[in-house]
UniProtKB/TrEMBL annotation:
Protein name: Transcriptional regulator, TetR family
Domain HTH tetR-type: 1-61
SUPFAM superfamilies with a match to the protein in the record: Homeodomain-like (SSF46689), Tetracyclin repressor-like, C-terminal domain (SSF48498)
Gene3D superfamilies per record: Tetracycline Repressor, domain 2
Length: 201
């Protein structure tokens, strides 16, 4: 395994177990037994490392969330529900690729919602949020055309509300892991569809 890849894999594991802000560069040096010069050969700063970690390990899942509706050829209700299911699946995804079970849930929330807003390169998260909003808006518009969503619904406002619902649910769950995240998202979707759907839930 190359040094850069080793740094990335070890860092994401440390971040997920302990949190982004609790892990220092010195902790990373110690974890993989490298010196300062070896680290700075590949990364200018911890901020850049965090960006690369999210880009490497989380961007593929972001793409899966956005692409979920394209793989679903069923009703509008099913397409929207698929997004909810995918969005709350970040933990199983990270467990699978990292092979860890201990998570700092604030770190997971940081990835899925805040991302890199406080870091130099904001394109990754901004692009994800824009594409997610656009994708949901397309589904809502299509649903109205098919007569599956109430015609009086404002598509863009509804889509923004859905994105906000997804994000706030993640925050609520991160604050209290006693909450069943799957049940939380299922319940939220139920109330969403009750307010916008033509057919019963």
């Amino acid at each position: 395994m190359e040094i850069k890849e080793k740094i990335l894999k070890s860092s994401i594991k440390l971040f997920m177990e302990n949190g982004f802000f609790e892990v220092s560069i010195r902790d990373i040096f110690k974890q993989i037994n490298i010196n300062k010069s070896a680290f700075y050969k590949y990364f200018k700063s911890k901020d850049e490392l965090i960006y690369k970690v999210i880009e490497e390990f989380c961007s593929p899942y972001f793409d899966e969330i956005i692409g979920a509706t394209n793989l679903c050829n069923e009703s509008t209700k099913k397409k929207l529900k698929t997004i909810f299911i995918k969005y709350c699946g970040i933990i199983p995804y990270l467990k699978k690729i990292l092979n860890i079970n201990k998570f700092n849930y604030i770190a997971v929330t940081f990835i899925t919602i805040e991302g890199l807003k406080s870091y130099e390169n904001k394109n990754l998260v901004n692009d994800f949020n824009h594409r997610l909003l656009e994708g949901i808006d397309n589904v809502v518009e299509e649903g109205k055309e098919l007569g599956e969503i109430l015609p009086a619904i404002d598509s863009l406002s509804t889509s923004k509300s859905i994105v906000s619902m997804l994000q706030s649910s993640m925050v609520l769950w991160a604050m209290n892991q006693n909450i069943d995240i799957n049940l939380l998202f299922k319940t939220n979707f139920k109330y969403l569809w009750k307010s916008i759907g033509v057919s019963p839930i």
